[in-house]
Amino acid sequence: xxxxxxxxxxxxxxxxxxxxxxxxxxxxxxxxxxxxxxxxxxxxxxxxxxxxxxxxxxxxxxxxxxxxxxxxxxxxxxxxxxxxxxxxxxxxxxxxxxxxxxxxxxxxxxxxxxxxxxxxxxxxxxxxxxxxxxxxxxxxxxxxxxxxxxxxxxxxxxxxxxxxxxxxxxxxxxxxxxxxxxxxxxxxxxxxxxxxxxxxxxxxxxxxxxxxxxxxxxxxxxxxxxxxxxxxxxxxxxxxxxxxxxxxxxxxxxxxxxxxxxxxxxxxxxxxxxxxxxxxxxxxxxxxxxxxxxxxxxxxxxxxxxxxxxxxxxxxxxxxxxxxxxxxxxxxxxxxxxxxxxxxxxxxxxxxxxxxxxxxxxxxxx
Length: 366
Description:
This protein is an alpha/beta fold. The protein is 44% helix and 15% strand.
């Protein structure tokens, strides 16, 4: 059975090590297969900057300590990685074993460039320890969050009526005040919110009734004073009190709470914002790559620590037990919250993305 070395233990704490010792057994065969194939490293095109440093601290380094397989970190932004990945695949020279991408990019043309994991039967920790839907067939979920409804409690204080749904977001009589919505290249998030506000149930959203969604957006447009273009901008809106309500990336909302901004958060109907990890087709170290994908679903304490430092969350559902008590209720992996997430139909998105983006730009400018 795999055991963490003293170096790994010092990096993530004794509890993490104990958990790993108790749960590493399913990894043994994957790691042994990598060793027999002479795979001593795995090349990962992941995140960069402070985020990348956290991933190295809580996942890459412990993996190396536990298995002896070195993680070679490459990376870049999602768009940059995707373009380079396509170029490498087109000439049959993919340099990366694992790639991390936004879930919205997992369209059929990209899936064809990735190993088919099926139902992840060969990655037992993904199935047994991940949130529902962690196995995507051609990858596994890692970061998860959503476009939450965030509201300022200085306008809607505890003990009084507070917005909880997209219907409430559209209800400017009961909940008056300026609003903000995203304009960051994913207008289908706004269309989803509009349809939910118009009474469409989550299980009936796709295929999106685009005409109906834009008619509903027409209603709220006069009250949306900012169409924010970056996460930083969305946070600043609440710091300055420019809006009372907005759709925010969940991580940005939690950062505001950490700044003591009194923010209410609702997961009801939040579009899924997630990243996945996948093994590239033709990877030079496929067994080591599979071992890494399974490894990241072990050690729930490490996931909780990662969540605390990143203001995000991962798809390891057992981590909820190790979050601070006051963070559990609003965590996306809280089952009541996860069940309210809207997952994007990726086939629909692949077929309609360009048309939606063009119509969105025209509508916003009108």
